[in-house]
């Protein structure tokens, strides 16, 4: 499972990735529904799909990469990189 999670981790801030996951899920669900059931279905089901996809991404990211959102660990890693240079 961590191998799959590593495929979806990109060196972007977590809020940016959650927004990207939301947009992709919204479009993947919303566009077909727009043609099948109309704009209202696109807005409702696309938004729900985006919200759930974003929440699932947050849970997976925090579960497999807890050090990525730990401020003290990040500051220590940045300081070590600065000392190496």
What does it look like?
There is one protein chain. It is built from 4 helices and no strands. The protein is an all-alpha fold and 85 residues long. The chain is elongated and about 55 Å long. The model has no long low-confidence stretch (mean pLDDT 76).
Question: Can you lay out the helices and strands and say which pair or pack?
Answer:
Blueprint: H1 2-7, H2 14-37, H3 39-64, H4 71-84
Helix pairs in contact: 2-3
Number of helical stretches of at least 4 residues:
4
Gyration radius over CA? 17 Å
Indicate the low-confidence ranges by residue numbers: none
Integer average pLDDT:
76
Number of self-contained structural domains? 1
SSE order, as H and E?
Answer: HHHH
Through-space gap between termini: 35 Å
How many strand units?
0
Could you tell me the strand content as a percent range? under 5%
Tell me the helix content: over 70%
Shape: elongated
Structural class: mainly alpha
Main sheet makeup? none
């Amino acid at each position: 499972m961590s191998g799959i999670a590593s495929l979806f981790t990109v060196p972007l801030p977590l809020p940016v990735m959650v927004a990207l996951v939301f947009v992709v899920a919204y479009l993947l669900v919303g566009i077909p529904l727009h043609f099948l059931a109309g704009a209202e279905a696109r807005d409702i089901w696309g938004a729900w799909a985006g919200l759930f996809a974003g929440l699932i991404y947050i849970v997976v990211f925090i579960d497999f990469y807890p050090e990525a959102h730990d401020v003290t660990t990040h500051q220590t890693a940045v300081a070590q990189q600065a000392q190496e240079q």
